[in-house]
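Researcher: Here's the sequence for the chain we discussed earlier.
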Amino acid sequence: MKRVLTVLFAMGFIVATLAGVSAAAYVVGGLAEKHGFAGASRLTNILFLMLVFVMIIATLLTIAERKWSALMQDRVGPNRARINLPGIRNRSLAGLPHILTDVLKMLTKEDFIPGTANTFMFKLGPILAFAPVFALFAVVPAGPSVTVFGHHVDMVVATPDFGVLYLLAIASLAVYGTALAGWASNNKFALLGGVRASSQMISYEVALGLSLVGLFMAFSSLQLPALVGTLALDGAQATGQAQYLWRTEGGFDFGLPAWGFLLQPIGFIGFFAASFAETKRAPFDAPEGESEIIGYFVEYSGMKFGLFMISEFVEVVVLAGVTTALFFGGHHLPFGNEWLASQPLMQEHGWLYGTLLGTVFWVKVVFLIWIQLVIRWTFPRFRYDQIQNLGWKILLPLALANVFITGALVLWDPSLRALAIFGMLEIGVFVVLTMTKKEEAAEGGAHGAHGAHGHDHGHDAHGLPSHASAASSH
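Model: Thanks. This is the structure I predict for it:
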């Protein structure tokens, strides 16, 4: 019971913190617009969205991953580091001092450069690995556009016309960082890791791009704000994921929203899997598998190694944010959006409306981050050939088929209802296949156990006890 209360308190604290920072972002943006110049809120968004939200969440993930993995594996989490101050010197403080020790270690550890390495390229590698990933969040809308202190405030850094193409282009630059890190180290293990990382990232970029084409056709736009959509207010037509496929009539809007994962379940699975492989985290961490090739940044130490490490956690946050905007309605609620926006309190205090929906966006992001960490601590590492087969033989053909089917359904029914029905059928088939495999595996295990006990009396074909044979097979 104590653990349950602790988890509930932590969840409430996280939501309250997200709401507080979202409110600060809107208020500061409104003040910047009022006392500065038009578009000044975009500059404050750099501070709040990219430096506060993305970087702080990524930093906290270094401790969250250890604690959540300990919780999933039913073991003690990080609790050794202490702060030698009266009253707290004997308290673990939820493991938070470990973040401070990590930072101190990165900043003070010897910055070693191999004597035979290409010094310039060696130093450039970590920068090219971190900078493109960090820049990706610039086009992700983290909240609605509202009026604060009489001025318009957008909760996004930039809205270029090419939108999602910016994400694909900048994300592809991260390949240079991994390739340079492996090559410039002049270490054959690092070179092999760099080649593996480069081939993996290039392979999955093809499937990643194609998995989004169906979404572009459904909403006829490449801009993330347009894909997230706007509400049907003041006689305007709802757009993007803010529209309803089916809805009830009345003051409170309730219905089935046109969220991306309902219209494009295959696209969502392909995008999420390909993006996950781009992060090079388990089960796609073959480029840095310690038991095989050590990794492409084996020669890096100090803060250079820290840049490679933190870039992976930044990728986790960016992937969750982009997935939320593309497939889970961005900052929109599943229903009741128009009713909420029409309330006098929300119309009078735009920052309050923005805070509420901005918190909804970040709660979705945190949930998707948790999903990624669950996957990371559930599946074992894939072999290199399995990674390539998944990218080229499974995700790519599925993405191509999804493009043709989506195009046909959108031409046949521009209201997207036919596409939604087909998408829900795909989800149903996926669930049935998943449950069927579980049942077959359970039946197979039961028959195997019956045969072993009924015919071999607990021994295998070689005369070994059945539990010993199973252990040897693993």
